[in-house]
Specification:
about 425 residues; Helix Hairpins; five-stranded antiparallel beta sheet; alpha+beta; 12 strands; about 20% strand; Heat Shock Protein 90
Length: about 425
């Protein structure tokens, strides 16, 4: 059997993947929110500082003090036109030219003598003595950086707690998985302990039996019941075959025995005819039974009409069963009926129905009747409510008859007659067969 993971293992794997995805998503969202909050806070401060810087520069330049830089406490530094070389930052001039106005950008760089810093830079346009000029604001908030670390530490604690809760949830899910799969494991062990001959219904497994588990048990029981019925049909098939082959075998054995007692040509010819008839009967019977066990293309068979002589021969082949009985057996061919079935199969089918009718009738009439769309065998015997005594293979013949009808898409039905006896009716369904 292909090696597969248990439900508990799959639950652990899937839950771990989900937990890892949740934690990763949580950290990513947290980092994005933290960065956005920092950028938004710095940008709002720098916009306010730009207004203050514009007023201070206008005042200083009006007094003749044309300064190029200012400090706006507590976190901002303002530079006129270009901060490079004045602030000590090391960025490319092209970077400054590419900045959009009134947007704060975070930059990681080295401040000369200060080490590595994270700061925000923003370019904005002001009016200075009637001229439009660009100023650059540098925002250095070490307190916020420390607050960011503190927030991260707090979130780390929450993350550890969340991870602990995930582990607890995983344990609970594994326990639930174990409880839910326990009935399946018990069912598997029950089936493993059962012998091949044990086809008794499987009891529901112990534990929490879900609807799906109960449905599985029910379907398994139905499947076992089908197997049981199939085995019973096979046993019945074997009993029927041995019963039907017994007569021709006895005829062959008797004929062979008699051949050694006379040299009369007429006697020998008679025994030869008996041997030929018995062997033909056995061959037809075996061929029909074998045809029931293999798939055949029925469409390759051609429709043929039922003839009176064929029906009469089938009836006469079993007339010996009416010995010492006051029973009239007859064939009524009211309509010409087209059928798609080999002669040997029809012989076995009708022969079984006729034998049952002969066996069940002590006096009266047995009629083999052909109508426009059906064939029937009716009798005035005991009916369906009782089985004739001393008749072997009574039900087995009907079993084979049903199988033959099913193979050729016919329908066999049995019904009691109002005047007594019963009728076996075969409804012919030939499909789209052209009319004769």
């Amino acid at each position: 059997m292909k090696r597969a993971r248990t439900a508990k293992q799959l639950t652990f794997i899937y839950f771990s993947i989900l937990a890892f995805a949740i934690i990763t998503f949580y950290l990513a969202i947290f980092e994005i929110i933290l960065e956005d909050m920092e950028q938004l806070t710095a940008q709002n401060r720098m916009k306010q500082d730009a207004i203050v810087a514009e007023k201070q520069l206008e005042n200083l330049w009006g007094k003749g003090n044309k300064v190029n830089s200012l400090t706006i406490p507590p976190f901002s530094h303002v530079y006129l036109d270009n901060p490079i070389g004045v602030s000590g930052i090391s960025v490319e001039p092209t970077f400054l030219d590419s900045l959009s106005t009134d947007i704060a950008y975070e930059v990681n760089t080295d401040l000369i003598g200060e080490g590595e810093y994270e700061y925000y830079i923003m370019r904005t346009e002001i009016s200075l003595q009637g001229e439009k000029k660009f100023i650059y604001l540098l925002h250095l908030d070490s307190v916020y950086e420390q607050s960011e670390e503190e927030v991260f530490q707090t979130q780390t604690k929450q993350l550890v707690l969340s991870f602990a809760l995930l582990c607890l949830s995983l344990w609970i899910v594994l326990r639930i998985s174990e409880i839910l799969t326990a009935p399946l494991s018990g069912l598997s062990e029950t089936l493993a302990r059962r012998s091949a001959q044990d086809l008794e219904p499987i009891p529901p497994p112990e534990g929490v039996a879900t609807r799906e588990v109960l449905q599985l048990v029910e379907q398994l029981n139905q499947y076992q019941n089908k197997i049981h019925q199939l085995l019973e049909r096979e046993r019945a098939f074997n009993r029927y075959a041995s019963h039907e082959l017994r007569t021709p075998l006895m005829v062959i054995k008797g004929a062979v025995s008699l051949l050694g007692h006379s040299d009369d040509p007429a006697f020998i010819e008679k025994q030869r005819q008996r041997l030929h008839h018995a062997s033909t009967e056995m061959n037809d019977f075996v061929s029909t039974l074998l045809s029931l066990t293999r798939e055949e293309d029925i469409s390759k068979l051609s429709p043929r009409p039922l003839r009176y002589q064929e029906l009469s021969d089938i009836l006469e082949a079993h007339r010996l069963l009416l010995k010492d009985k006051e029973v009239i057996a007859e064939v009524e061919l009211d309509h010409e009926l087209q059928v798609i079935i080999p002669e040997t199969s029809l012989k076995i089918l009708l022969g079984n129905l006729i034998k049952n009718a002969f066996a069940c009738t002590e006096q009266g009439r047995v009629t083999l009747r052909v109508e426009a769309d059906n064939i029937s065998v009716s009798d005035t015997g005991t009916g369906l409510d009782s089985k004739p005594r001393g008749v072997e293979g009574f039900g087995l013949g009907l079993l084979i008859a049903h199988d033959i009808c099913r193979k050729y898409s016919w329908t066999l039905s049995l019904s009691n007659n109002a005047e007594g006896g019963c009728t076996a009716r075969i409804d012919i369904n030939n499909g789209d067969i052209p009319a004769p």
